[in-house]
Amino acid sequence: MKRTVTKAIFPVAGLGTRFLPATKSVPKEIMTLVDRPLIQYAIDEARAAGIKEFIFVTSRGKSALEDYFDDSPILEQELRKKKKLDLLEELKRTTMDSGQIAYIRQHRAKGLGHAVACARRMIHNEPFAVILPDDVIAAETSCLAQMIEAYAETGGSMVAAMEVAPDRTSSYGILDVDSTDSQTSRVRGMVEKPEAGTAPSNLAVIGRYILSPKVMKHLTGLGAGAGGEIQLTDAIAREIDGDGVYGFRFEGQRYDCGSKAGFLQATVAFGLARPDLRDELSAFLSDLSLSGT
Ligand code: G1P
Q: Could you state, in order of their start, the residue ranges of all structural domains in the chain?
């Protein structure tokens, strides 16, 4: 089995109800961290890992996402005329060659596993990545690139993993692994959103996956799991006794941008990481903490 990974699926069909009313008219993935939409961080990470084909699983109301990746000749012309070359350069990050990007509709919200399965006809018999844009990961080497390197050694399927607080395990896919300290560990069991007190560990799956095409096959015909939804975790678990599943403890800081608190934390952290904003923002934050607001 070839181990080069060139296709990535981005499930972006969710309604984003946690961010209502903003998400009434703006797709969650277009909400901005500093000045880039969430989806741009996911695309940058995928590109840095060598991904060449970007497959978006969308739903009704997500057309702003499709427009975002279009060329914008009028805007570009205007920026060129005004000699705003840095902005022009920034715009280039958002463009995709025709044929590099595909949109598939998930007609009904039946869960993450179902969303991924909607892309099955585009995957054929090759491994593929899945990126959940809600999980934003700041890292020196992109998280997916770290995983692709590790995957070249292991094959099978691989999920990003990180320890979470024990009272948060019921919000994640949770792994049972055979080694508690190595960066890559073989998975012995995995369960989606275990009930409080039943989790096999506090090692959680984070939204980066490299999956064997067999996982697509397992998804076809898979019944509903946790929360009455078709779960990606359940399909991956079927590979534990097949070609193997590995948990990869990535290096980097993960922000849960599916939650308001996580989104705010990411906004502050990414703002502080920007040379043009750092001084003003950190002065503001220290004033704020001094005044005890
Ligand atoms: C999804 C997955 C879950 C994983 C999580 C990571 O859950 O189903 O296994 O731990 O992403 O963010 P969701 O957050 O979509 O409910």
A: 7-258, 259-293
